[in-house]
Amino acid sequence: MARVGEKYFVQQYMQEKYLHGGAGFADAERIFLSRGFQPILFPYHHSFSLWAKLARIVFLFKMFMTIKKNAVVFFLFPMYARMNEILLTWLQWKDVRIVCYIADIDGIKDGNEKLLREEIAFFKKFRYFIVHNARMKEWLYKNVSVDCNAVMIGFFDFLAESFSGQRSLSSDVVFAGNLAKSLFLTKLQFLDRNGSTLHFHLYGPGQTNAILSQSNVTWHGAREPYSLPATLKGSFGLVWEGDGIEKPSGSLGHYIQYISHHKLSLYILAKLPIIVAAAAGSASLVREYKIGITINSLYEIEETIRNIPESEYMEMQSNMETLAKKISKGYFLNNAIEELIQLI
């Protein structure tokens, strides 16, 4: 194990504003900054003028000369700026250790095989990784290299205040995120059977008439993410993907098995026990920490809730309290960074 020199991170997300999952990426960069990592932020981020391009080229050479051998550089993937990719490639020539934090794999998420091949080829350039969970780690070893060094975060950190009250048991279910990509939300009406009390509270952008016209749905708007834990209305938080209600389906339904959703951390901070697809990569975490229930179909939700004793529901909330404190303080990424520094 070589001595680790100065520590850097490629800043891509922190300066942006988000209404859903991107907040987790920005928080990750804030955690790097809080640890004293030096940011690498190319100038004129949103400009494509000739002057901006020249300024970025000058900055590229400056950073290449500044960052010394045995330094370590962390970055979040996806990484869209070509200059960032060039810099990382050059730095590897100097024996700078590069750590890829896989936040998303768009090729799987979008069902785009060509893009996925490009992403895998990119991953093959690196040896050190931060991944979501055990399923993503297995995928990495199988598709990239068995010689990878990968550590897991388990939960996304979310640097927001947690909900301080108590939830009451009911059939009110929360779903927060980008509603436009969650096509199953247009089919919630089929869960509204005779005598049903099941109701869905939706938060986020991308609402459509097909979603809002359903009698068992209330949309509460798109809100600033850091205010959400204290303002969500309901008793359970739903983690589900794809276009089907009988099972997670489509490319997003397939992708669910590899990721730990940012909304999972949101629900924990909001003290909303989780309802998660049994096929999801985070389902094992929900079972391990006893913070919710797993289902195979959305048709199972109402009966499952009906069979939960009040005491068990309260215990789920109690089990979330320690996790919420850790998530809101950046514990999980900090822990992964410490593990990786030891590996390097």
3D structure, described in words:
This protein has helices spanning 22-34, 50-66, 82-93, 106-109, 113-123, 134-143, 209-212, 228-231, 250-255, 262-269, 283-289, 301-306, 310-328, 331-343; strands at residues 7-10, 38-40, 72-77, 97-102, 128-131, 149-152, 172-176, 199-203, 217-219, 236-239, 274-277, 292-295. The protein has 14 helices and 12 strands. The strands form 2 sheets. It has a 6-stranded parallel sheet. The chain is elongated, with a radius of gyration of 21 Å. It has 344 residues and is an alpha/beta fold. It folds into 2 domains: 7-157 and 329-343, Rossmann fold (3-Layer(aba) Sandwich); 172-327, Glycogen Phosphorylase B (Rossmann fold), CATH 3.40.50.
Topology of helices and strands:
Layout: E1 7-10, H1 22-34, E2 38-40, H2 50-66, E3 72-77, H3 82-93, E4 97-102, H4 106-109, H5 113-123, E5 128-131, H6 134-143, E6 149-152, E7 172-176, E8 199-203, H7 209-212, E9 217-219, H8 228-231, E10 236-239, H9 250-255, H10 262-269, E11 274-277, H11 283-289, E12 292-295, H12 301-306, H13 310-328, H14 331-343
Helix pairs in contact: 2-3
Helix/strand-derived category reads: alpha/beta
In CATH, the topology of the largest domain is named: Rossmann fold
The helix-strand sequence is EHEHEHEHHEHEEEHEHEHHEHEHHH
Q: Major beta sheet, specifics?
A: 6 strands, parallel
Number of domains: 2
Give the helix proportion (percent range): 25-40%
Task: Assign the CATH class of the largest domain.
Answer: Alpha Beta
Label the overall shape.
Answer: elongated
| Overall radius of gyration | 21 Å
Ranges with pLDDT <50 over ≥5 residues? none
Question: Do you know the CATH architecture of the largest domain?
Answer: 3-Layer(aba) Sandwich
Percentage of β-strand residues: 15-25%
Number of helices: 14
- Distance N to C terminus: 6 Å
Strand order of the largest sheet: 2-1-3-4-5-6
Structure summary, number of beta strands: 12
CATH superfamily of the largest domain: Glycogen Phosphorylase B
The overall pLDDT average reads 93
